[in-house]
Design brief:
94 residues; mainly alpha; 2 domains
Length: 94
Amino acid sequence: MISCILKLLNEVVLASQLICWTAQFIGHGVFEKRAPALLDNLVQAFLMAPFFVLLEALHEFFGYEPYPGFYAKVKVMVDAEIKEWQEKKHKKSS
């Protein structure tokens, strides 16, 4: 009984991973017209990105910050990167 449940869970997880990775690549290709960061830097994609998501979740649900002002500082940097990316995208399309 338990082995059947574990097998089913493994199949669900595998299917979810395949669907999500496929959607990631399609989304980047169709909507952003660029390769995902995974192709730029594997260390960032597999090590740093999950920590970033974890910090986002901890902040959102529990108000956690590694040090006071961390979230505000990171938000300013991320907003600047987004603005720069949008300007580059706008210049390419013009």
